[in-house]
Amino acid sequence: MKKMNLIYGLYLVTLVLSAWAMIQFYSFFDQFAEIVRQKKIPFYVEINVLPIILALLVCGVISFIIYKLQPRKKKKSIFTPDEFAETDEREEMITAKACRNVYAFMGPITCVMLVLIMFYPFLIDKVPYYPVLVVLFMPLAQWTIYYISVRKQKL
To answer: I need a labelling partner for 105 at 20 to 30 A (CA). Which of 49, 78, 99, 112 fits?
Structure first.
């Protein structure tokens, strides 16, 4: 159970860092789009690269460590999550049920995301990067549902 808590915590860290980096990209492209619309030459665009570099470094180190800590026989692919390294039928059943729960919630989560996106015109001045946050709500919901399902079944 401690391993599952650690993995969920690492997912949250990577999601927050990814959100921070994507907000910087959003800001950059928003500035660039404004320059293209106004046809200003010469132009000036700024971007904070600290979140991008930090996200790449931290996520890269976390991925490398998790990949290296896996036993040799379980290294099927670098993209195979560590949670899918089942050792017996019970763990396979728990993973299958958790994946089924995540799949079942995708419809309602998509509807929630659509409702949230409808508020964007009201928030465009205060939170211009709001669409980035709404899109990142999907993996957050998936990981949380998976984590809760596995945790419930293992207790």
So the answer is: 78
